[in-house]
Amino acid sequence: MTPTRRRLIQAGSLALLALAWEGGVRAGWLDPLFVPAPSAVARALGAIGPEAFRLLGETLGKALLAYALSVTLGVGAGLLIGAVRDLHDVLNPFLVALYAIPKILVLPWILLIFGLGVTPAVVYGVLQGFFPVCLLVAGGVRDIERQPLVVARSMGATPWQLYRKVIFPAVLPAVLAGMRLGIVFCLLGVLVVEMFGGIRGMGFLLTTLANAFKAAELFAATALVSVLSVAVVLALESLNRRLSRWR
Fold it and tell me: Quick check: is 27 in a domain?
């Protein structure tokens, strides 16, 4: 199937879903109080658009800062832990355990320590994004075949050359997979803090609209966040394809 045909089928499927949704509301099969029609959502988007886009920009800024820190710390720690066997054997069980613990449990402590504002949102976003990146990179390093490493060492490669020429190109798919997961977790973390911490941003707007029972506006704001998330993941997927050719 050609890319053009695939995109047409995808667009047609979304259009049919929107028409079925609109028809279901107009026919009375769906309660517009809880499931507003797409046309009502579009009108609501026009009404809340300026404020929603401004708050979405604030949330995205916090998420990107958390994401940059998560990737930097996660990739660095993952490369180190994966390359040193003793360090991996000691720390990996703790990392897995910390990754499995629901991070929402530490959110009250983060708010207590850092107060309200940008800092707790970024800290919680980093906490959400760090572990998947670190664990994937460390696992990718552990899965590297030993033969290229032995050959590089036998040819006199320095530790820096070993990382740059052998380890990092081999672990690049794991790094990119971690980056794709990391951005989703960071955005989720920032939204959670905004929702439960009452911090200005898109999460706070979603909570406000839900409490006010404004279903159409809530659907519109949710759609904005969803489109942003999908766009970021698709951009990282495109980066993945380009870097895979370089690798």
Answer: no
Range(s) of the domain holding residue 61: 39-246
Joined tokens for residue 144 = 């590297």
Concatenated DSSP letters of 117-152: SHHHHHHHHHHHHHHHHHHHHHHHHHTS-HHHHHHH
Burial class (CB in 10 A: 0-12, 13-18, 19+), 122: buried
- To the nearest 10 degrees (0 to 180), the angle between helices 85-100 and 38-83 is 150
Distance CA 184, CA 176 (A): 13
Domain count within the chain: 1
The secondary structure of 9-57, three-state, reads HHHHHHHHHHHHHHHHHHCCCCCCCCCCCHHHHHHHHHHHHHHHHHHHH
pTM here? 0.84
For 19-63, the pLDDT digits (tens) are 888 888 888 887 777 888 888 888 888 888 888 899 999 999 999
Task: Give dist(CA 242, CA 225) in Å, integer.
Answer: 26
| Alpha carbon distance 209, 200 (integer Å) | 14
pLDDT tier at 73, thresholds 50, 70, 90: very high
Question: Are the C-beta atoms of 121 and 66 separated by less than 8 Å?
Answer: yes
Residue 32 lies in a domain: no
What pLDDT, in 10s, does the model give residues 195-247? 888 788 899 999 999 888 888 999 999 999 988 888 888 887 777 777 666 55
Buried b (16+ CB within 10 A) or exposed e, 210-228: eeeebbbbbbbbebbbeeb
Residue type, 100: A
- CATH code where residue 241 lies: 1.10.3720.10
The closest of 125, 127, 128, 133 to 201, measured between CA atoms, is 125
